[in-house]
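INTERNAL AUDIT FORM
Audit reference: QA-55
Scope: verify that the stored structure record matches its stored sequence.
Auditor: D.O.
Record contents follow.
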Amino acid sequence: MTDSIETVDNSTAEKPSKAKTKKPAVANLYTDLIEVQKAIPTIAKTSKAVYGNYANFDDIIKIVRPLLNEHNFVLIQKTQTQQGEQFTSIGIVTELIHVSGEKITSDPFIVPLQAEKGKSLAQTAGSILTYAKRYSLCALLGIATGDDTDGNYNMNQQQQGNSYQNAQLTPQLEQNARNCAAQGFQVYESFFNQLSKPEKAALIYSGLHNELKAMFM
């Protein structure tokens, strides 16, 4: 018995089609993120503070969230708590989760939780978290909202005729300021903005404020 061998004419056989190349998921994420940033309009600064106008979190989220959803993103902002030796810090981590499964996560934006005159600790915590949500989201998406308060405060201070020039820098205030500065510019800036006017003046006139700011230059 003779074995038969079937041969195939490769010239006429149907060749498998080449698979289409798919974009990596991360490429789709950044493509959609670019479209989100292109679509974000100038956000009106409708809220007022002692240093000028700014765009509040509610105004920002009403504009940004629909644009994120339209371009396949879910926005999640998680609360974080850090327990230090002398005080508790709270803050926010912002995540943009893409339909592809990829995501972008911000660094934690953490601020020391300290009592403020005329506010309960819960009210202070709420204010910190709202500020942290706004700052973290805007930083992640590259939105400018007029958060620079240092120069405006110094100008207002001069207009007050140096009424707080004799404000005393307490050891506790100095230690808190140095601890916050050690955590980075954003943490120190948020800490400074929450202080009372005499406390801000104590930092400024003692020279410590400029000393700590120089760390970030």
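Auditor finding: record pair retrieved intact. Helices lie at 25-39, 57-70, 121-141, 150-159, 171-182, 185-194, 197-206, 208-213.
Action required: none
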